[in-house]
Amino acid sequence: MIKYVIKHITFPLIARREGLAGIMRGVESLEESQYWPPERIRELQNERLRKLLVHAYENTAFYKKRFDDSGFNPYTFKDADELAAIPVLTKEQIRSNVDALKARNFTPGELHHAETGGTSDVKMRFFRDNRCMPMKEAAIYRFNRWAGWDFGDYLGMVWPAHQDFIGHDTWKSRIRNELYKRNVLFPAALIDDRACEEYLRLFEKKKPAAILAFCSPIHELAKYMAKKGIDGHRVRGLITTGEPLYDHQRRLAADVFRCGVLDSYRTREVGPIAQECGAGCGMHVNAECLYVELAGKRRLAGSGEQAGGVIVTDLLNYGMPFIRYNMADMAVMSDKTCPCGRGLPLIDKIVGRALDVFVTPDKKLVSTIALVMYMVNAAPGFFGKMQIVQDATDHLTLKMTRDPLPGPEVMEHQKNVVERIFGPRMRMTYEFVDDIPCEKSGKYLFARRLIPIPE
Q: Residue 353: pLDDT above 80?
């Protein structure tokens, strides 16, 4: 009964009060269009691109100049492939041109501001128009429903980003949460046994249908549960986001919570970009809301796959258009057809932040996923935390904690992996430390590149 009341009465009412009227219709629309054939989805993207490009040219000083300087004519635009003529938009350009990027046909009251965390790149303030927000929220709920969650269900949140929940500890906010989003929050910026115990007690009381979590903190919670032999906290599905999901993290979380794990690619700037559906064919792009392309493709060492920088055009935000925005991530696209029946385009894998993708001495790219697979998962022994730092084109520093120190067989294995992936010219140095702290956002950086990728 309470779930019905929340889904059909309190959630829509509070959403309307928040300026998000139409979320439910948006979810219904997306759940219909996700099964359209790829050709029809592409037509929708081209139609929305045409309107956006003309709007940006006519209403923003930034894109008027950018299109003119690059010789791009928005009035003759026909297909998304033509976007390559427009230069890529960077965070630094946004920071320096906020006013020029805002559309002059929106009043200040029709816009609201947000900002990125700035923990893995520059911090950035940006704006979105109020009209686009219901559909952006609907895209989030569409993805959440793939994990078995529905309106009126509790949603476990293992979330280190404190700024997302400022002011959520008052009695008014707690009542509102019970009648609206029903988040069961674990503010996981700092995780210890006591914090895990308290959250699991709350978890048992609320019994969330699904969990949305950053990869590192949910892994720490799963390790605690496995260590203590805690069972019975089953959910319908678990969604990970915020940082790379490694195979050993996926396996442990799936085992502890007895459910499938769906990796999700979500951002503050443009919202949810892509998510796995559970069929194992990759991540479905949120194509009704975004156009995603790859730029500067390079071969990955080992697999030979073509990886490129993720470039996103937001099809919904007219208040401050993001056209060919550089996400500073690297990915591999897929041309597979998913057996789930959705016609949405597929990302095969996110190979890492552009800052974290490594390069061999002969200029091939190496993904962090590959490094974890071979240096951690396949290692013949146990060791503590590890962080790989590339500080020269021919040198890596392996930081490792002493809890426990790696044995000789592990170190020999890792040296062999480095030589096999990077080639014999790559040198490697070990540095043993007491701890490898997470970033301010709670993200744990397994890999860090301190040099530019050679042209």
A: no
pLDDT given at position 65: 98
What is the pLDDT, as a whole number, of residue 161?
58
The pLDDT tens digits for 153-177 are 999 999 875 545 544 568 888 899 9
Residues 301, 307, 311, CA angle at the centre, nearest 5°?
A: 155
Residue 59: pLDDT band with limits 50, 70, 90? very high
The residue ranking higher by pLDDT, 146 or 243, is 146
Residue 275's nearest CA partner among 148, 139, 151 is 139
Same domain, 33 and 150: yes
Q: Is 437 exposed, middle or buried (0-12, 13-18, 19+ CB in 10 A)?
A: exposed
Residues 62 and 92 in one domain: yes
Rounded to 5°, angle at Cα 404 from 192 and 186: 20
Residues 346 and 365 in one domain: no
Are 221 and 343 part of one and the same domain? yes
Residues 291 and 49 sit within 8 Å (Cβ to Cβ)? yes
CATH number at residue 302: 3.40.50.12780
> How sure is the predictor about 6, in pLDDT bands with cuts at 50, 70 and 90?
very high
- Which tokens belong to 429? 């140095």
Extract the tokens encoding 14: 């509070």
Give the Cα separation of 385 and 406 in Å (integer): 10
Q: Is the pLDDT of residue 194 over 80?
A: yes
If one counts the domains in the chain, the total is: 2
Phi, psi of 232 (to 5 degrees): 95, -5
pTM of the model: 0.82
Q: Is the residue at 455 inside a domain?
A: no
For the stretch 361-388, pLDDT in tens is: 988 778 766 777 678 777 887 777 888 9
pLDDT for 436 equals 85
Q: Any idea what the CATH number is for the domain that residue 432 is in?
A: 3.30.300
Please give the residue range of the domain that contains residue 443. Answer: 358-449
Residue 445, Cα to own-chain centre: how many angstroms?
A: 14
The arithmetic mean of pLDDT across residues 36-49, rounded, is 98
**Of the candidates 268, 290, 344, which has an alpha carbon nearest to the alpha carbon of residue 52?**
290
